[in-house]
Amino acid sequence: MTADALRARLRTDLGAAMKTRHRDAVTALRTALAAIDNAEAVPTAAPPPDATSEHIGGAHAGLGAAEAARRELSLEDVRALLREQQRERRAEALRYDSLGRSDAADRLRREAETLDPYLEL
User: Fold this and answer.
1) How far apart are CA 6 and CA 120, in angstroms?
2) What is the pTM of this model?
């Protein structure tokens, strides 16, 4: 499996979770996809070009003028991001348990478990 195939699977499963209103899965899959998208972002060194649109404030004129380069993530990079998402949820679940918020802790554990199958692909 490739990183792109894993991302496609996450997106497909997100759609299915939304249709069935599986709230915990929707949250876990959305944040996982956002983490992947954020990891692909490359810091920009140069400011955007000065050519702006006269019709829309802050818009850049020209096809692709505001496009930014993206980093290619490997399958292992994506899996590492998913493991980090799980680790964060489980750590917060422990914190919520210590505060007597077992309902929120259980929700975070269910979200972490939602990501298990994607680590085995």
Assistant:
1) 11
2) 0.80
- Per residue in 41-57, pLDDT (tens digit) is 887 666 555 556 556 66
Encode burial over 43-82: b for 16+ CB neighbours within 10 A, e otherwise: eeeeeeeeeeeeeeeeebeeeeeeeeeeeebeeeebbebb
Q: Where are the domains of the chain?
A: 3-39+72-119
Pick the CATH number of 3-39+72-119 from 1.25.40.10, 3.40.640.10, 1.10.1510.10, 3.60.20.10: 1.10.1510.10
